[in-house]
Specification:
Protein name: Putative saccharopine dehydrogenase
Number of strands: 16
InterPro entries: NAD(P)-bd_dom_sf (IPR036291), Sacchrp_dh_NADP-bd (IPR005097)
Number of helices: 14
Structural class: alpha/beta
Organism: Pseudoramibacter alactolyticus ATCC 23263
Strand content: 25-35%
Domain Saccharopine dehydrogenase NADP binding: 6-97
Amino acid sequence: MENKVVGVLGCGGAVGKPAVTHLLKKYSVLGGQRHPIDFGSESFQWVQTDFEDPQSLRNFCEKCDIVVNTAGPSSKIRDRVARCALEVGCDYVDASGETIFLDRHEPIYTQSKQAIVIGAGFEAGLTGLVPYKLVKDFDHVDEAFCYCGSRQRISLSSLVDLLNSCFIDSGFANAFYREGEIVPHVVPGEELFNISGFRDEVYLKPYVSNEVLTMAKQCNISELRWYHAVAELETMGIMNDMFQSVNHVADKDFQYALVKRYQKVFDAITNTRPYFNTVFYDLKGLKDGRPIRLGTTVQVKESYEICGLVAACTAEHLLKHPTCHGVSWACEILDPDKVLAICLETGAISDFRTVSLDINEEAQGQSFVPQLEDGEIA
């Protein structure tokens, strides 16, 4: 057992529990939340903590070497846990952290000697980390398509964050990345696609997040198209409804009523239809001067468990390699092979396989990419 204390805020939640379970294999864990919880280990201690109470939060952070925030909704907590951790000299890991990315140029982050790692979850997190492994099979990747979709229970906290993500600068909807530029890309909402690895046909919603944009540039991918793969028209309707609600974002009662209505729809879907969590990557490029195309399917048992494991792996990485400081995405610092090995060993990933694809076959959704003339910028 290493002589370090890892604080996990939200330790009893769907993300916090797998994070604590993994960390207890090597570290003492201080669990923070309002209500008591027991993990059956002498290395675990619960401390009553309320993120809305600054003194309670400070008392928690002062007892830790590193703080992992798995509590939610992140759109409500924002950066208050991160700021408290940095003030007492702790490194900080956030399973979400989009608002921290938007504020990353503030002095508290740019002048900090501590590490602040965000996007240590599933999406952002594992889905952005996998391409760092896949590009090793290429000398250069010309095109990358990613399709990420699921049908699973979704918590009220996650729905609140999903709604609020529509109203912050978290990425680029109806767009893709090409050679340093964001290009408009609209896929007809009524068209179904048959994507490898998915149990059902899906609708596609193009979206380039800030994390994915960072990954594409670091992996030297010339063109990247990222899609949310949606199996139900009801879900597509919810996504469109959320974007149309932008004028009511400040109305908390309206938000709550909207989220409760959405939760009923999602519950009805998941109670009557099979679960799935699937990611499919389609990469095309060059290897030893020859064109190759590889498809990789990732089947996930439960995305909340993945979030917890990635957050725990990030904390473990920082404790072993205390070199980075400032704000980073988890995918920028983690070893994808190590994280994937842990996810496969625990069963959080049920299948991970790569196959060769026809180099001449068109990728799903590609026909809707606008063809630009030479020199034209979208």
